[in-house]
Amino acid sequence: MRKLYLWLPLALFAFFAGLAAYMLTQEKDQFVESAMIGQPLPAFALEPAFDGLPGAAKADFTGKPKLLNIWASWCLPCIAEAPHLEALKRSGVEIIGIAIRDKPADVANFLARHGNPYTRIGSDRISEVQLAIGSSGVPETFVIDAKGMIRYQHIGDVGADDVPTLLAELEKAK
Amino acid sequence: MIAEIGLAALWLAAALAVLQMVSGAASLRAAPGESNPLAIYARPAAVVQAFLAVLAFLLLLRAFAVTDLSLKLVATNSHSMKPFIYKLTGTWGNHEGSMLLWVGVLAASGGLLAAFEKRLPERTMGATLAVQGFVALGFYAFLLLSSNPFERLPIPAVEGNGLNPLLQDIGLAIHPPTLYAGYVGLSVAFSLAMGALMTSEVNPAFARVMRPWVLGAWVLLTLGITAGSYWAYYELGWGGWWFWDPVENASLMPWLAATALMHSVSVLAARDALRTWTIMLGVLAFSMSMLGTFLVRSGVLTSVHAFAVDPERGAFILALLGLYIGGAFTIFALCAGAVAEGKRFAVTSREGALVFNNVMLSAILAIVLLGTLYPLLTEAFNVRVSVGPPYFNPAGAIFAIPMLLVMAVGPLLRWKSDSPKRIQFELMLIAALVIGAIALVSFFGRFPLLPLLGLGLAAGLAVAAFLPLRGRNLKRVPVATWGMVVAHFGIAVSLFGMACEGAFSEERLAAVAPGGTEQIGGFAVTLEAVTPIAGPNWTAMEARLAVRQDGGEPVFLTPQARSFWSPPQSTSESALLTRWNGQLYAVIGNQAEDGRWQIRIWWKPFVTFIWYGGLLVGLGGILSIVGRMRVDLKRRSASAKGAQRRADIEALGVAAPQPAE
């Protein structure tokens, strides 16, 4: 090996390939977690989203840990998560909804079609509460403990796999 | 049935790639002067494979044209009611289809090479085709094993999902195939370089074979980057034309390597120097294009342009990258020592200038590569960083400025050896222009250093580009030389645009009530109204801006703030007013509490010259290809005539005139 420097390109390339292979195997978190986790829920009091259920306020989060579900009737993934919210409800979880930029007629129509897992739904017409609790999209689900503290955030629709995770988080929040 | 024919064609093409590889490799084992019986299959295999791969692509194109919803790919990416042109472009507006396009172009260029290239020794050609077959095989495997474009649905879909609306844009329909074709051209250069290296045939004849592929690839990359930069400028609505984003860098790096390769291959063709260096650049240029594909498709780096990201596919591309580039560098380390040293030359010679610029280009490439991969390195240690203009601009300029100066002087020097004294006048002229322009501009105000230097260099370079024509009969200047002149002048034009944008841009961010007027760059911009409008899958607030220049008739601009609902996403649609000396760029923002609207307006003098320059550079490359091809064809027909004459003379036997003893 008289000309060792000829191996230099290969060495540099091997270093890059190793690094890239390592990074590919790493789990990449694409989600920006809300900075509000561990913080108290901001104060809010929302009008009912339609005639069938009462509105939602910070004062409703007492007694036991509850789920806060950010959703909208115009949101397609919300249809996908509806049966899984239903499953959570059957496990005795109380879910309070906040409908984002929605109309009463649309909300009623959505619940008639896809079931109603909620005990209360507040109407957030200008995404005010959504932004205040650090949610960046629809749907998102938060675990709120009995003292009104935000304990856990789930981004995106709730799938079948997420139901046990959410139940465990609710248990932890007790 | 049609789709199955496509799939079968693809499998057959893959099998032929194996044959091409084995047969090409067999030609290496032949004893000198003899040929291996297996070796004769390499060329036909490449040609037939090209037909099959192109057939497979055409069949997929047909499936998209008639919206065959029994195909999974069509059902997920197309829609029966889409305009016909977007049905066709939808063929490569997705991962599988674009990989098939890539393979089709690769096979077609391999077929062209095998069918028409007769200048190289058979052994070198065999090795080249073997490498080409090996590269193609990897991509066939990728397609057939992990992204089959012809996959059927168990039950045909009733209707398709449609194409991402962002991709329903004529610019984006053309942009990817252009870059792909450029990348593939570099793969042919890579195969040729490996073939020449393995058979120790690194010489001017080889360089002349390689040059058109490098030039062609370089022209396509130049045009692709120019178009991409303009798209980002008007579509993203941030007012900038280059963001040093990983995906942009991924397209810039192969271009830098190809630029260096194109110049060094010319030195090799003309002067038989820079042998090992040319091979090295051939490998480097292709590895940069593979690296680009990897970064774009794997999602290891976060980017604003990340389409079709999938870590699993990323792993496949990384494996191919390791196989090809790792293998190529190993062969390089083993064989490059055996390549004889080329012709020597003095420091002050055209070769010297080209070598200097090659080194500078490589240094800029290293800086861009380091900046692009640095976040990947720190993320391995859980530190998230973003590398941006504050690093790239000054670090790149350190090497770009000397490079541009030498670029102005280099073409004036003679081959082999020259003295600076001979071109005294030209040197003084260029220096006077650079210094004069800087002094003139500084006289009018204080500007940032880099744009100032850029203006000076642009002035010097614009004139220097034409100096090689001085004292020559313009009608007899070879077309390829015109190509160089135009391309170098294009760099000056582009540099002028960049420097003007950096030095003289005016920006106005204001909250304006309807009826209010803002002044910018000699324009009076009045916000007449803001109205809500709706599109097929979005709603928007559209501002109507009346732009008056020196109190003349108003021209209307309508920037929009769009909200898409599925997925929820906001985009800003900029509005542009183009004048010969610049562009007015307007964007609308949010509404404030008191009912006024945020309006952002830029006046960017001569910003369009950035892209005009890019087009000129591409035109220069095309002129160069045309010139070289004409010379090659002439040379070929001349040598054919010579051979014919000799044969005639021999046939005539005694009657032939005998040379005097």
Number of continuous helical runs of chain A: 5
The 3D shape of chain A can be described as: elongated
**Mean pLDDT score of chain A, rounded?**
85
Oligomer: heterodimer
What value does the Rg of chain B take, in angstroms?
28 Å
Largest interface, counted by CB within 8 Å of the partner chain's CB: A-B, 22 and 30 residues
Rg of chain A: 22 Å
**% residues in beta strands of chain A:** 15-25%
CA-to-CA gap between the ends of chain A? 68 Å
* Uncertain residue segments of chain A: none
CATH fold annotation of the domain at 58-172 in chain A: Glutaredoxin
Beta fraction of chain B: 5-15%
The SSE string of chain A, one letter per element, is HEHEHEHEEH
Main sheet makeup of chain A: 5 strands, mixed
Along the chain, the helix and strand elements of chain B come as HHHHHHHHHHHHHHHHEEEEEEEEEEH
Report the end-to-end length of chain B measured between terminal Cα atoms.
Answer: 74 Å
The tally of domains of chain B stands at: 4
- State the CATH class of the largest domain in chain B: Mainly Alpha
Sum up the overall morphology of chain B in one term.
globular
Largest sheet of chain B: 6 strands, antiparallel
